[in-house]
Amino acid sequence: MLSLIELAKEGKLEKTGAKPKLPIKVDGVSSETLDVYKIPLEYVYYNDKNGRIATGISQYQDELHPANDQEDPQYNNFVAKLIERDNSSALKRTEKSIQESGQQVYGYVLDDGRIVDGNRRYTALRNIRQSTGRTVYFEAVVLPFSYGNTTERAKIKKLELAIQMGVEERQDYDPVDLAVDIYQTTSGDDPIMTQADYAADSHMRPTEVKKYYDGAVYMKKFLKFIGASENNFNIIKESKVWSLFYEMGKSLSKNFGDDPESQVRKNETMNSYFGVILYQIHVGVSGNTARTHIREYGKHIVNSVDNEDFNDDVADMVDDLSESLQDKEIHTTSDLMQSLTDENETVEEFGDTFDTYMRNARNSESVDQFIRNIKQNVKYYHDLNEDGGLIGSLRYNEVSEDQLKELQKYMRDLNQLSKELFSKYGDEIKIR
């Protein structure tokens, strides 16, 4: 098995002269004992456990076998295409920078060549080699760790989280990638770390880590709901609907307890949420607009007395839609869009019911707001009267004659309008 550390000891890897500064303290290593080496590209391979690429490769996990180019170049070629597709413009900028000025930021690799940090730089170097034929090297720190050692996985992950906002890659994680990384790192039979540890190492609030984790849970359930692989997160990423799962998780956590009855209603509401999400995808609503709609759904329906009625009214439609989608082959976002088009009648029926409930809820809110406004005004006039009227509250002796006449006019108008509106309201009640 390849050992970069042994190659370095044998003098087969050239040092760059740069001295790394670790972003955190890691047991077993220090900046004083580490060097940056020029590593041949064929010795290095992408880390299938890295959070930035986990989303793209998760659905192929059973088919992929991580290996360097000497052993099997197909793995690196496959991941490189994912990285280019994910952000081709950023990759081009990195290529241009390296061609003009060389690699300015070193990466981190494990002893066997697995990349901990530097996916885009490594991809750019591979592209440069292919297009120019030049011999190029990946400049990186070699860490004396291995994923094969379970006790070292947490150290590797801590370091990855500490440097994932490096100079070159300062942009935030894609939220789907982050959610998936949190889920894969903190769950399962052999988690690398706890949610609390992840929060501390990533400088996130524990409550936020939990929200992202819940979002990942509901993404997996949704993918199963539509008959796709539960790890095919690219469908959600490409549909730009991550925020719907984030808001969904918050709403379900807030509105339902842990008792058996609450869990039944929670599952019913979860399926209704899936119906809303499919409807949003079908009509082409995504991004901030979709997030606003899902928040309003949570506020006006889920968190209201109408929730059970809505769940009952859409239950058959949601079940039919799920069954129909599961009968189809859904591997991509295009597959899902086409399948929803095929089920247009069911989706539109769901949408009509959803829109009706939302419209009624908004109208009801408007009525409630109107009543609250009237109530506040009545209280103001009541307090004014109880406090001595104009003399006590408005210092009547300071009111001019013109102001008094104007005030009297508006009070008469208010009195007359109140009578007319009350009469109209009474007539409307009779009509009902």
Features:
3 domains, 5% strand, elongated
Layout: helices, strands, pairs:
Layout: H1 4-9, E1 14-15, E2 36-40, H2 51-58, H3 73-86, H4 88-101, E3 107-110, E4 115-117, H5 119-132, E5 137-143, H6 150-163, H7 175-186, H8 195-202, H9 206-225, H10 234-239, H11 242-255, H12 260-282, H13 287-302, H14 307-326, H15 333-342, H16 344-386, H17 389-393, H18 401-431
Parallel strand pairs: 3-5
Antiparallel strand pairs: 1-2, 2-5, 3-4
Description:
By secondary structure, the chain is mostly helical. The chain has 3 domains: 160 residues, no CATH class; 127 residues, no CATH class; 59 residues, no CATH class. The protein has 18 helices and 5 strands. About 1% of the residues have low confidence.
Question: What's the short story on this structure?
Answer:
This protein has helices at 4-9, 51-58, 73-86, 88-101, 119-132, 150-163, 175-186, 195-202, 206-225, 234-239, 242-255, 260-282, 287-302, 307-326, 333-342, 344-386, 389-393, 401-431, and strands at residues 14-15, 36-40, 107-110, 115-117, 137-143.
Determine the N-to-C terminus distance. 83 Å
Helix content: 55-70%
For the biggest sheet, the summary is:
5 strands, mixed
Q: Please state the structural category.
A: mainly alpha
Can you tell me the residue ranges where pLDDT is under 50 for at least 5 consecutive residues? 166-170
* String of helices and strands: HEEHHHEEHEHHHHHHHHHHHHH
Q: What is the count of distinct domains?
A: 3
Mean pLDDT rating = 87
Number of strands: 5
User: Mind telling me the C-alpha Rg?
Assistant: 31 Å
Q: Counting H and I runs of at least 4 residues, what is the number of helices?
A: 18
